[in-house]
Amino acid sequence: MMNLNLVEHSHEIHEGHLHTEGVSIFSVIEHAFIDTLPMIPILIITFIMIEYMEHRFSAGLQEKIRNAGVLGPIVGALIGIIPQCGFSVMAVALYSRKIVSLGTLISIFIATSDEALPVFLSMPSAYGSIMPFLITKIAIAIVAGYFIDVVTIRRSQRCEIAASKEVDDQALKCVDVDTIKFSKVLIHSLERTLKVTIYIYIVTVIITFIIEYFGVETLAGTLFSEGYGQVFIASLIGLIPNCAISVGLVKLFTMNVIGFSSVIAGLSANAGLALIFLFKENKKKAVYITLILFGISFLSGVVIKVMGIYS
């Protein structure tokens, strides 16, 4: 099992509470609440910064993608790594109009990690894992994007989908051309903080309860089989379009249940809401793109595990 020694705080907490005689579910709930509470102020600050960036720069970032040309996968990876609410959906709209290539679309999907980065930022003890996480995700996104574009010879894509009004509306939700209002930024930030905090708390309770009564070895070896099976399961789970998945994967990683290769594979497969809109537009094309995304995510996790990167 991978251990970066970057998230020792989480382990110290659980070493202090787990595997003790007569521990009740109420104790697990209490400890999970105590663990989650300090994250809230950091999440609020993080989301305020993210919200401001979304309102201030989203329109310009979209324009950079439109004009990226052969640099599409690079620009897509660098912009996709920023935790924005609708950029992956925006990428679907641009791809459907043949403005960006399939490689650029995939690079954005892989770089996107939904709420993973804010969760990392909410845990000071995990800060050492942030740069390896970002660098690895960006590298995979760029390499995969160019590989796909080379395979498709960057020919004009016959996308077989045309962005509907629903996709356009969702893609433009984060593009605010009006004056930035702090009240709007604050309200949305608090809403996202509340949602993510609830997810973190629930996931922490569930994982802690299982570890408390069955041990981390059981959780890692049964629910998340060790070795390449763990990478496969993480990649599969990552395809689920819900921010609770990214929160859960980060928590499993910081609690040493899954390794670095698995969290990278799972979060590379996690493209936010984009897959939902792809399937609404064209199921056949969406299945094709989803299989590519899953294959690249799983293969990346395997390569990281074989090479022992950050292990």
From TrEMBL:
The chain crosses the membrane at residues 32-50, 70-95, 102-121, 127-148, 198-216, 228-250, 257-280, 286-310. It comes from the Bacteria. The keyword Cell inner membrane does not apply. Keywords: Membrane, Transmembrane, Transmembrane helix. Pfam families: ArsP_2. The keyword Transmembrane applies. This is Permease. It comes from Clostridium cylindrosporum DSM 605. The lineage of its organism: Bacteria, Bacillati, Bacillota, Clostridia, Eubacteriales.
